[in-house]
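Hello,

Our lab assistant flagged a job as stuck in the queue for most of the afternoon. It eventually completed. Since we weren't sure the result was trustworthy after the delay, we are filing this so someone can double-check. Below is the sequence as submitted and the structure that was eventually returned. Let us know if re-running is recommended.
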Amino acid sequence: MATSESRISTNTNTIRFGILGCAEIARKVSQAIILSPNSTLHVIGSRSIEKARAYAKANNFHPTTKIYGSYDEVLDDHEVDAVYIPLPTSLHVEWAVRAAEKKKHILCEKPVALNVKDLDVILNACDSNGVQFMDGTMWMHHPRTRIMADFLADSRRFGQLKTVQSCFTFAADEDFLQNDIRVKPDLDALGALGDAGWYCIRAILWAANYELPKTVTALRITENGARVILSCDASLQWEDGKVATFNCSFLSNLTMDITAIGTKGTLHINDFIIPYKEAEASFSTVSEGWFTDMALEWNKKPSEHIVTTDLPQQALMIKEFSALVDGIKRHGLQPEKKWSTLSRKTHLVIDAVIASIDKGFAPVEV
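-- returned structure --
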């Protein structure tokens, strides 16, 4: 694996990134920027120069990486093409809008905002300034995701989608449950719904070819003393009879599952957010399964499919984002609206879950 010490791009066509903040997730994305062949880590900025310097040293950033003691300095750097924003969700609107106004393309950590209204402020700023927007949902960029989508679209092998179940849970330790920004109402008020639930909802929409449900019903929640959600279950219903459910939690064992069931086939994946292995990922499918004559076993066993990749999914995300930015910067193309549309649909469902909770777990139209 390349490191910041071993790969410094001399290609003038690479996209130069600035990072706003020293969040834990930024360690992973900064290395992805370094690994991607069409990007380079140009600058890291924090609220203090001391923190930025310590972060750069701890992550072995190349000595040529600029270090700033404020976010504004990152945005004012005319050499920065794009910014990655891993700040607490409550700060996304302010800094994403500022970045867009400085003509910086935006890769923003999820959840992008606290609600659709705030998200629209960000997306409108991006539209007004002609900059590319993408959220940081890494698994969307793994080649496995495209291959699984081909199976779901196959009317012969999968048929018509009938139901989806998605789950993302992890058992957070006591320090996380007391101190992490994701349990603080002033920083990430959506809690587990915004953090883990984002992935579940995106997975359901992906399986449904991004068709929004008609109604959403929250089923159960657990909150901390500050009324931040620690676990949540919800159901989505479509007018054609499709149904989906999801469970997201900071209180249960690590699980990252999608099960999509059609009239002719079933897809299972058990590591959809972070694959068990970086260089390869698997999923299983079965079509027209039934029992043997004595109903002692299945007549077909699920087939395992393995997908390999030369780059980890986070680097593939950076590569795709950088290619879009390059198309705008050097070839006069328009920003790709697909990614903002997917972010907005995901947030619409999150808003509906919150509304259902507020209405005593009643169904809410999306």
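-- support follow-up --
The delay was a queue issue, not a problem with the job. The result is valid. The first strand starts at residue 15 and ends at 20. The CA atoms of residues 123 and 341 lie 9 Å apart.
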